[in-house]
Amino acid sequence: MIETASLLMVMPELVLTAGGLVLLMVAAYAGDRTTPAVSWASVGVLIAAALSLNGLPTTGGSAFDGLYQADAFAGFAKVLIYLAAAVSIIVAPRFFAQGGALRAEYPILILFACIGMGMMVSSSDLLTLYVGLEMNSLAAYVLASFMRQDERSSEAGLKYFVLGALASGILLYGISLLYGFSGTTSFGGIAAALGDGVSNGELFGMVFVLSGLAFKISAVPFHMWTPDVYEGAPTPVTAFFASAPKVAALGLTIRVAIEAMGPAGMAWQQIVIFVALASILLGAVAAIGQTNIKRLLAYSSINNIGFALVGLAAGTPAGVAATMSYLAIYIVMTLGSFLCVLQMRDKDGNPVETIASLSGLSQSRKGLAACFAIFMFSLAGIPPLFGFWAKFLVFDAAVAAGLTGLAVFGIAASVIGAFYYLKIIKTIYFDEPAAEYAPGGSKVEGVIMTACAAVVVLGYLLNPFLDSVSAAAAASLF
User: What Pfam families is this protein classified in (predicted)?
Assistant: First the structure.
């Protein structure tokens, strides 16, 4: 029998499920003319889901006999997920208006993806992990190919689906190995089995599970889908992929590493260190030759995931707290960057994605140029912007955990990565002007973009609050 306490703990997912199903019926019977209303209603559902996190039933406890965990860690991650999802819904209409391709299913798919992501960060069992991950992935495959008439979008959806199926197979194989050698699918049971010593079977299971999760966070060497999908998918969808699923997948990876594989820390720590180093290096080097802004931001996301994994590699409460703070700051920088990309339109209003088209932008669109510069400097980790603080936190946690070499490598690679961010700023402010962009056509986009820039510039004022909630989130795992 399902207990009332368990239902209260999963209230965010229940709100999203009910809201998504109702809006799906509205879209099915009333058609695409309801798209604006469905979009704003979806934002309202996300706000309601976030508000339902505020309460004792959702801040601590295990639901459904240990399948689902409601704690501060999950709550922190879900707030970031809902924020990124809401922004991705709000900025979509203007982008799709040019091709008339926005349908009422778009915000509903994002709601269903959020249900899966919520289950991911709250999972305390391998079964919940897989169900949540696949629910998010199925919606994401459709979103990637949402512009059916666009060959790039269709190609992005197909590539994402094929490689996602491969990653799911790898993950399932790892899950089967862990279950076979530990005799349980619960994170607590797996931790108890690993505490008695790590067998070869359990070690292989850990490697396969972490490999499957590495695909979801687009970490090297499972990053190959990221540039093509980011470039081909509609820009609002790319902004969504670069933010919300990243938080969910990395949150899930942290929970699996700490709660399920905690006793085998020396084993998984080596894997995470390698993945972090490879992601930082490839993300820094591969982006240098890019000419498409979305592909460049794809490699930037790989690079940033590497930095976030530095905190996880520490394996300490301070390291996990640093990673969560990094994710919060990364979400703001990434959403702001893609809002700038959405402003890149030629005089006819068609989207433009080449970096060369930004030449001389500072002379025609001073506000947009300033926002671009703020986000690029912050992503590069230039003080005193908020992006510098994010990197400082993970490096500090790594040094405190004795991983000084990892921190030194990360700092050195930051210098390489700064090159391509500064190249964009140089193009905007110092190159000969290219054809002018169309005037900014959305006040909502402008307000959100300005708000993100303000957070990046003045974010240090939020440090006491961010530090406290990140520490509380990390403490709930240990």
Answer: Proton_antipo_M
